[in-house]
Structures are given as structure tokens and as C-alpha cells.
């Protein structure tokens, strides 16, 4: 099992939305490195749900990858802000995963707390200028992140 961090602006899609829906496609990713991370995910991998572009930003919960290698349907929809006119159904450019809600953390782990705990090499989200919406998290960083959130380590 691998660990990831998925960023979303809460006004666009929040942990509340995921909890209500229970599962969703993580669509609309239009960065090749982030897309490649999505393609590396496996069913059962866990992802930290991070609220970005809000005050304060931070990790608010956990979700699980349940389906991988999904063609992102928004690339073919001209009405979508994620439409890609160069993408073709026979040759898609963008892939995604389906995630399901696991739990909301009792307390959010703010970006400030993350910066005080992790170096930029340990947790990419604390890197200045990092704009990736999908990034890997090492097992050690995941354990420490769970501790910061007040979660029992080893209880995904």
C-alpha cells in the first residue's frame, strides 16, 4: 500500500462533499506529473485529503483509492473547464482514479503545522511554489501525519 496527498479547493470539492457522496472520480487534473502519480496509484492505496486555497489550508481527512486507470471523462466534454480539445476517446491524454471516503480527522493538520514538522523533502506539500494537486507521501511521513491528526498509527 502506498500513500498520497490529494489537494482540492473546498469551494470546488471538499471532504464534506466526499463524505456525502462516499466516492468520486478525482477528475480534472491537468498536470502531467500529477497525472503520472494518478496512474501509479493502486487499489487500496490511502490518500490524505488536503484543503487548499482556504484559510487555513491543511489536511482534513483520509480517502482510499478504489479504482485505477480510469479515463478522465471531463477531457472530452466541451462544457467542462477541464476540456482538452487535443484528447480523443481512442487516444485519451488524461487519466484518473476513483476514491472513497475513509474518515474526516478530528482535527485538521494545518499547512503551518506541516511546515513545522516536515522538511520539503519529507513532504512535498510544504515546498515553496509546489502547485501539484497529487503527490506521493512516504510511509514514515504518513505515520507522522496521522499522529499530528490525532489518529491511531496503523489504523488507516
Plain-language structure description:
This protein is of the alpha+beta class. Helices cover 21% and strands 31% of the residues. The protein has 4 helices and 6 strands; from the N terminus they run E-H-E-H-E-E-E-H-E-H. The protein has helices spanning 15-21, 32-40, 111-117, 139-148, and strands spanning 3-8, 23-25, 46-51, 58-71, 95-110, 134-137. A 6-stranded mixed sheet has the order 2-5-4-3-1-6. Strand 3 and strand 4 form a beta hairpin. The longest helix is centred in the C-terminal third of the chain and has 10 residues, at 139-148. The radius of gyration is 15 Å and the shape is globular. The termini are close together.
Mean pLDDT: 95
Secondary structure: helix percent: 10-25%
Major sheet: 6 strands, mixed
Class of secondary structure makeup: alpha+beta
Name the beta content range: 25-35%
- Termini separation comes to 11 Å
Identify the overall geometry: globular
The Rg value, from CA coordinates, equals 15 Å
Number of strands: 6
Keywords:
about 160 residues, alpha+beta, six-stranded mixed beta sheet, globular
Provide the fold topology.
Blueprint: E1 3-8, H1 15-21, E2 23-25, H2 32-40, E3 46-51, E4 58-71, E5 95-110, H3 111-117, E6 134-137, H4 139-148
Parallel strand pairs: 1-3
Antiparallel strand pairs: 1-6, 2-5, 3-4, 4-5
Amino acid at each position: 500500500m502506498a500513500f498520497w496527498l490529494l489537494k482540492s479547493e473546498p469551494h470546488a470539492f471538499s471532504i464534506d462533499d466526499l463524505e456525502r457522496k462516499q466516492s468520486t472520480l478525482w477528475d480534472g487534473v491537468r498536470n502531467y506529473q500529477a497525472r503520472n502519480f494518478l496512474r501509479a496509484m493502486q487499489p487500496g492505496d490511502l490518500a490524505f485529503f488536503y484543503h487548499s486555497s482556504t484559510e487555513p489550508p491543511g489536511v482534513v481527512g483520509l480517502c482510499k483509492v478504489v479504482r485505477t486507470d480510469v479515463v478522465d471523462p471531463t477531457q472530452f466534454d466541451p462544457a467542462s473547464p477541464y476540456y482538452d480539445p487535443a484528447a480523443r476517446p481512442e487516444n485519451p491524454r488524461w487519466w484518473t482514479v476513483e476514491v472513497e471516503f475513509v474518515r474526516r480527522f478530528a482535527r485538521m493538520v494545518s499547512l503551518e503545522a506541516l511546515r513545522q514538522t516536515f522538511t520539503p523533502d519529507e513532504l512535498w506539500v510544504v515546498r515553496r511554489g509546489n502547485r501539484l494537486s497529487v503527490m506521493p507521501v512516504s510511509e514514515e511521513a504518513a505515520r507522522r501525519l496521522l499522529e499530528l491528526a490525532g489518529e491511531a498509527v496503523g489504523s488507516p
